[in-house]
Design goal:
It is a single chain. This protein is mainly beta and 122 residues long. Helix content is 10%, strand content 43%. It has 2 helices and 10 strands. The protein has helices at residues 32-37, 114-119; strands at residues 2-7, 14-19, 24-29, 40-45, 49-53, 58-61, 69-73, 81-83, 90-94, 104-109. The strands form 2 sheets. The protein has a 7-stranded mixed β-sheet with strand order 6-7-8-9-4-3-10. It has a 3-stranded antiparallel β-sheet with strand order 1-2-5, with no helix packed on it.
Length: 122
């Protein structure tokens, strides 16, 4: 395991997490929100994630089924992590928001056809 840190652009939101040794599994999703924000998913179990600062700096956004909770910094608008519906026991950390990005093994996820793609995650 490796220790990683990251957060939003203005640094109001900061977190640390434990990741598996590289290459770290990651997903690139083509759904409407991920495609627009350039989010690259790294799933981190809740027990391996700590929000260091910025709990009060986060604002929540839900759409579609409302199952996923997208958390954005109120000041800079960056979503550095969020609660995905696909992995209810994990945070999805944006690899692009890590201070030092480890080597990633990126797989495509067809979020535009979420139900069918999610079946492959099981």
């Amino acid at each position: 395991m490796i220790e990683a840190q990251g957060g939003c652009h203005c640094r109001d939101v900061r977190f640390r997490c434990s990741l598996p040794d590289p290459p770290v599994a990651a997903m690139s999703c083509n759904c409407s929100i991920c495609a627009a924000t350039g989010f690259v998913h790294v799933m981190v179990p809740h027990t391996d994630f700590e929000l260091v600062t910025g709990r009060d700096a986060l604002t929540s956004y839900r759409f579609g089924t409302g199952a996923a909770e997208h958390l954005f910094c109120k000041r800079c608008g960056i979503k550095s992590f969020y609660q995905p519906r696909s992995h209810p026991d994990c945070w999805s950390v944006n690899a692009n928001c890590l201070d030092d990005m480890p080597q990633l093994a990126i797989e495509a996820f067809d979020g535009r056809n979420w139900e069918r793609a999610a079946e492959k995650l099981k």
